[in-house]
Structures are given as C-alpha cells and as structure tokens.
Design brief:
The protein contains ten helices and ten strands. The protein is α/β, with parallel strands linked by helices. The two termini are 15 Å apart. The structure holds NADP nicotinamide-adenine-dinucleotide phosphate. The site of NADP nicotinamide-adenine-dinucleotide phosphate (NAP) has 29 residues, from helix 1, helix 5 and strand 7.
Length: 270
C-alpha cells in the first residue's frame, strides 16, 4: 500500500525527462515530499515552480551526489540517455550530419567519443547513485527496459546495437547486489507524452488515449509499448508496497483498461 506520509522524502533522478516529470507530478499529488536531482537547476525550477527541492548533480560525477542525499528515504531513478547516438550523448566535437552517419556505422567509435553514453549514464551513473544512497534507504526504484535478459533476440538485438541494454543490465545487477531494497521496472517502448525520445513514437506522437490496460510480467517475456503515464504510476504506486520489494518486473499496456487500475492487485501477482 502506498503511504504518503510527510516523513518520506523522495529523490527523483531524471526528473526533467518525460517519465520523470510525470513521476514528480504524481508524487506531489500523493503528498510526498520531493527533491529532484538535475544537471540544470533553472530548468527544474521553471518546470516544477517551487513545489520541489532542487539539488544540482550529474550522476556521472560521484562527488556531485552526496549533497543531494540528506534525509532521502526513497530514490526513483528515471534518468537515461538515448539508445542510439544523438546530441544527448554529448559528443566532444559536436558532429555534423555526415559525421553522425559515420558514428552510426561504428558503434565502438561512437561509444568512445560520447561523454553521456549509455555506459556512462545508465550503468556508471546508476552505480554512483547506489554508492552514495543512504544506508537506511527504504527503496531504490529503477527504470530499466524490457529485453535486458534477451538482448540477443530481435528486436532487442537492434535496440542494443549501442549498448543500452548492456548498460541497463549492469545497473540492475549493481542494484540487486547492493543491500538496498529495490524495485526494478522494465517498460517496453515508451508512448504518450511528454515526447522526449528521438524515435518513431515521438514522430507519430503515439498515445494510448488512456484506453489500454496495464500488464505486468516477470522473467522478461513481455514485449510491447508502455505509456509513460503508467511507468510513472508504477514508480509511485510501488513505494512502500512490500509486494514490490526486491522485484524486477516488465510493464506493458494492452487490452481494455478497467475503469480503475488496481495497482495493489497487479503487484500481488509478482
Ligand atoms: N524511450 C523508450 O522507448 C524507453 C524504453 C524503455 C525504457 N526507457 C527508459 O525509461 C526512462 C525514462 O525515459 P524518458 O523518455 O522519460 O527519458 P528522458 O525524457 O530522455 O529523460 C532523461 C532524463 O535523464 C536525465 N539525465 C541524462 N543524463 C544525465 C546525467 N548525466 N546526470 C543526471 N541526469 C541525466 C535528463 O536530464 P537533463 O534535463 O539534464 O537532460 C532527463 O531528465 C529512461 O531510463 C529510459 O532509459 C525508455
């Protein structure tokens, strides 16, 4: 059962991203105290209009993180970079169109030249968060991805061309091997806004229109699309829910949505 008592202070990494924004909104709606971890304080302050505490840090840089951890009871990690090379990979030499083409043909070079690659953000960055998390943290919630356990199978083999699933799997293992209570949430391809990724669903502005049911699975067998809204719902509904402790689960949207989604019942199946 989600508890919204005020002594909980939830740190959200990646709060300015698509799922992150929705997660913060839902936390505030449920009266959680929220601190966001961001690289860009003014962006976060404009976005959340004084409703959250803002801590400045970059998850790649360990020394920037301890100050954000004071009194934190839960961490929700929604951060990430793109699966394929993009400006979010923060290349030193700011490639032009043709140079990007070259990087697409040479994953090893792309990974070596990027300052914000999946390995640096999704693997090392998450490991840094785990390292500085309070010892008495109640729960570390991490957004991973469908496909981490079958990255050699299509379509995940393509998704993993530049190592995103390798990085997510490393992060999952780091979290599982820590002594922190954790919940790992593995969405399929994200749909519904805010459209923050560079992919077909963003181009098509793909949405569920709130019509699709939530399906959870374990063992990395589900494949499908997942609403950012339901990923954010899962991130918040799993807090303080003992059915979710030390669990990893997939989440996709399919079938007809009931009038009310019973998150407790969904989590009990895990
Ligand atoms: N797109 C998909 O289809 C898909 C599928 C499965 C799982 N996922 C995962 O779902 C999660 C949410 O996706 P999304 O589309 O909502 O993400 P998003 O909009 O791309 O947001 C990413 C967030 O990560 C932050 N970030 C990036 N590098 C950082 C760094 N070095 N230090 C601190 N923060 C950093 C960004 O902050 P700034 O504002 O500073 O840039 C931003 O807030 C991600 O973990 C993603 O990997 C995505």
């Amino acid at each position: 059962m989600t508890s919204n008592v005020s002594e909980n202070l939830v740190l959200v990494a990646g709060a300015t991203g698509g799922v992150g924004q929705l997660t913060v909104a839902k936390l505030l709606d449920k009266n959680f105290k929220v601190r966001v971890l961001t690289r860009n304080a003014s962006k976060a302050e404009n976005m959340f209009a004084g409703k959250v505490e803002v801590a400045v840090g970059d998850i790649r840089n360990l020394e920037t993180l301890p100050a954000a951890m004071a009194n934190v009871t839960h961490i929700i990690c929604c951060s990430g970079t793109t699966a394929f090379p993009s400006e979010r990979w923060d290349f030193e030499d700011n490639p032009n169109f043709l140079e990007y083409f070259g990087l697409f043909l040479n994953p090893a070079e792309a990974k070596a030249k990027a300052k914000n690659s999946p390995m640096k953000v999704d693997a090392q960055g998450v490991s840094n968060l785990v390292e500085v998390a309070p010892q008495d943290l109640k729960q570390f919630v991490f957004i991973s991805s469908c496909g981490v356990e079958r990255k050699n199978e299509f379509p995940y083999s393509v998704l993993n061309s530049f190592g995103i699933l390798d990085a997510k799997k490393l992060a999952e293992d780091t979290i599982k091997n820590s002594n922190l209570p954790y919940t790992i949430i593995r969405p399929g391809r994200l749909i519904d806004g805010p459209y923050t990724s560079y992919d077909l669903n963003t181009l098509l502005q793909a949405k569920t229109d709130g019509n699709l049911a939530v399906e959870l699975g374990t063992g990395d067998r589900l494949t499908g699309q997942t609403s950012r809204i339901d990923v954010a719902n899962a991130c918040v509904e799993c807090l303080n829910n003992s059915s979710c402790y030390n669990k990893a689960f997939e989440i996709v949207n399919q079938g007809k949505r009931p009038s009310v989604v019973d998150w407790d019942a969904l989590f009990e199946q895990l």
